[in-house]
Specification:
The complex is a heterodimer. Helix content of chain A is 15%, strand content 22%. Chain A is an alpha+beta fold. In chain A, strands 2-1-3-4 form a 4-stranded antiparallel beta sheet, covered by helices on one side. The N terminus of chain A is likely disordered. By secondary structure, chain B is mostly helical. The mean pLDDT of chain B is 94. Classes of the chains: A alpha+beta, B mainly alpha. Bound molecules: fe (ii) ion (2 copies). One fe (ii) ion (FE2) binds next to helix 4 of chain B. Chain A: Pfam families: PaaB.
Chain lengths: 116, 319
């Protein structure tokens, strides 16, 4: 694909990478859907820009599932849907499990300190 | 306003009045859209610029534990910025354009991030006071009338609790240490308390947009209401920590069932908003350098995507 193919999706973008122009203006928008846990539907959580499906999925994992918020992600560009494969689940999601300090309950605060 | 638009406006008003949510494809008044873009973009920029004062201490954190926590926190702030840029894009603006406006000083960010982080105690105080003030501002925004903004705020608020508690715990640890460590905490509190109060924005009398924003239910409380709530929440926390909030006029008012507190230096606030704070120039220069220095990464990602695409197409032809 030449970058020019993106022009239809993003008519305001520049067709090629020229100096001073940030390519992510021409990167397509992906909508991100996360399955919170087995038994639940994928739910729309937001969007991001990425140069291709693969990077969209990777960035969606970093952006939307830093705390075990999901077991599966779909990124959808235009009429295409891409889901993370179940085989990838472990390496794809495990880094968040070992960072317990990202959760407020990791911090012992005395009972009598209010509103914290 | 023609008849159709009149009907659309009535439907919009009725939705807002009934505590319904406005969604991206709905009709909305132009002023509503513009106010949201300005407010959400300013909020997004604050999250992004807000990484700098704390990022300043990642390499100098005193232990691996503190370093990992600080990294996770700063990464969260990047995430908050991106959730919010994503919300603004539903209003028809482009994230890249917003970044350009930020680094060209055409859009603002919270003045709090124009103050320097001088010691590691500042990291604790930022978590406690600055994230604490942010929580106070943001919890009501989870009920903001614009759906994508409200949903981004729900996500953000869940993560902010970790930010505040790690800060408070850091300060408790320092307070249990040496006299020098306790002095370091008090010094940081003395420097951050007043700027934290300024995070709620101008006094109600000087905040002309508040009434319209509240009518549209973009905002749910006035600046002064939120500031009062914050003071009342923070006073007992300061007592538990054993620090003094640097305001001789701060005291409980039994009649008002709230704390009285001293006058804010609005001249300082205005000066910092206008660019004369201790770190304004540095923050923007750093943001610009990060954006421009990251250009090769974006170029490489685009080139890689284009190459993969070509390979796939060639593979299809061969097959
Ligand atoms: Fe944040
Ligand atoms: Fe935060």
């Amino acid at each position: 694909m030449s970058m020019a193919d993106d022009v239809t999706a993003h008519p305001e973008g520049e067709p090629t990478i020229t100096e001073g122009v940030t390519p992510d203006r021409t990167w397509p928008l992906y909508e991100v859907f996360v399955r919170g846990k087995r038994g639940l539907n994928h739910v729309h959580v937001g969007s991001l820009h990425a140069p291709d499906d693969h990077m969209a999925l990777h960035n969606a994992r970093n952006l939307y599932t830093r705390r075990n918020e999901g077991v599966s992600i779909w990124v959808v560009r235009a009429d295409a849907i891409t889901a993370s494969s179940p085989d990838e689940k472990d390496p794809f999601f495990s880094p968040s499990a070992d960072k317990v300090y990202r959760h407020p309950t990791f911090y012992a605060i005395p009972e009598d300190v209010p509103h914290l | 306003m023609d008849r159709d638009e009149q009907e659309l406006a009535e439907a919009f008003d009725a939705t807002v009045a009934a505590e319904g949510r406005i969604e991206p494809r709905d009709w909305m008044p132009e002023g509503y859209r513009k106010t949201l873009i300005r407010q959400i973009a300013q909020h997004a920029h604050s999250e992004i610029i807000g990484m700098q004062p704390e990022g300043n201490w990642i390499l100098r954190a005193p232990s691996l534990r503190r370093k990992a926590i600080l990294l996770a926190k700063v990464q969260d702030e990047a995430g908050h910025g991106l959730y919010l840029y994503s919300a603004t894009e539903t209003l028809g603006v482009d994230r890249t354009e917003l970044t350009e406006k930020l680094i060209d000083s055409r859009q603002k960010y919270s003045s709090i991030f124009n103050y320097p982080t001088l010691t590691f105690a500042d990291i604790g105080v930022i978590g406690w006071l600055v994230d604490g003030a942010a929580i106070c501002n943001q919890v009501p925004l989870c009920r903001s009338s614009y759906g994508p903004y409200a949903r981004a705020m729900v996500r953000i608020c869940k993560e902010e609790s970790f930010h505040q508690r790690q800060g408070f715990e850091l300060l408790m640890t320092l307070m249990a240490g040496t006299d020098a460590q306790r002095e370091m905490v008090q010094d940081a509190v003395d420097r951050w308390w007043w700027p934290s109060l300024m995070m709620f924005g101008p006094a109600d009398g000087d905040s002309p947009n508040t009434q319209q924003s509240m009518a549209w239910r973009i905002k749910r409380h006035t600046n002064d209401e939120l500031r009062q709530r914050y003071v009342d929440m923070t006073v007992p926390q300061a007592a538990a920590l054993g620090v003094t909030l640097p305001d001789p006029e701060l005291r409980w008012n039994d009649e008002r069932r709230a704390h009285d507190f001293g006058a804010i230096d609005w001249d300082e606030f205005t000066a910092v908003v206008k660019g004369a704070g201790p770190c304004n120039a540095q923050r923007l220069a750093h943001r610009r350098a990060a954006h421009e220095g990251g250009q090769w990464v974006r170029d490489a990602a685009s080139a890689y995507a284009a190459k993969q695409q070509t390979r796939r197409q060639e593979g299809e032809v061969a097959a």
